[in-house]
Specification:
It is built from five helices and eleven strands; from the N terminus they run αβαββββββαβαβββα. It is an alpha+beta fold and about 200 residues long.
Length: about 200
């Protein structure tokens, strides 16, 4: 089975064993509050974020060529009872968000927030004011709206590694082989479905 999987040309494979490992971990981070909340304190601007305990999830099937799906992991919420925090953004981004003709993408906003090394504030500075966002902020279903700051424990326990190995051999390998063998049969149906829906 392993030899057959290596001989197949497709880059598609099952990865349920990764989710087995992640079941033994939790992540601490934050998720952007929606709708967006913009605040200023002096010349510093902030976006409201929600602190969360999360769990990482990988797509069961990774196939970036045959399927039009995003193979990036997602994060589910375990606990988010904490009050809002506030993550700094640049003044130039804030000015775009305030404009009636402004345009920004959610991914660009997340990239900027993550590029700033400071941790989110647990409370706004004195005299902070909230502002109405007038710009159009493009969001997509595939946008990752969560940021992970820490992962506990850092390494997977031995029992988790053992279960993941069993899952890999018993589920992922035979499932990957079966999926790759079925691709030539599925391809025409998917092609015509995409062609009809795009038209």
């Amino acid at each position: 089975m392993l030899a057959a999987a290596l001989c197949l040309s497709s880059c598609a494979y099952l990865q349920t064993h990764k989710n087995v490992k992640e079941a033994f971990h939790t992540c601490e981070g934050y998720r952007v509050v929606e709708p967006l909340q913009l605040y200023s304190a002096g010349n510093t601007w902030y976006i409201a974020v929600q602190p969360e305990t999360m769990r990482k999830h990988y797509p069961v099937l990774h196939d970036s060529i045959f399927l039009n799906t995003d193979p990036a992991p997602s994060y589910s919420t375990i606990n988010n009872n904490s009050p809002h925090n506030y993550k700094r953004i640049s003044g130039s981004t804030a000015k775009v968000l305030l404009r009636n003709d402004g345009y920004y993408t959610f991914n660009s906003l997340m990239e900027e927030m993550n590029s700033m090394q400071d941790k989110p504030l647990t409370a706004l500075p004195a005299g902070a004011a909230r502002h109405q966002i007038h710009a159009m902020v493009q969001t997509r279903a595939s946008d990752n709206k969560a940021t992970v700051l820490s992962r506990t424990p850092e390494s997977t326990p031995a029992v988790g590694q053992a279960l993941a190995a069993v899952d890999f051999v018993c589920i992922d390998v035979p499932g990957s082989v079966a999926y790759n063998v079925a691709i030539p049969v599925m391809a025409p149906f998917v092609f015509f479905y995409n062609f009809i829906t795009e038209e």
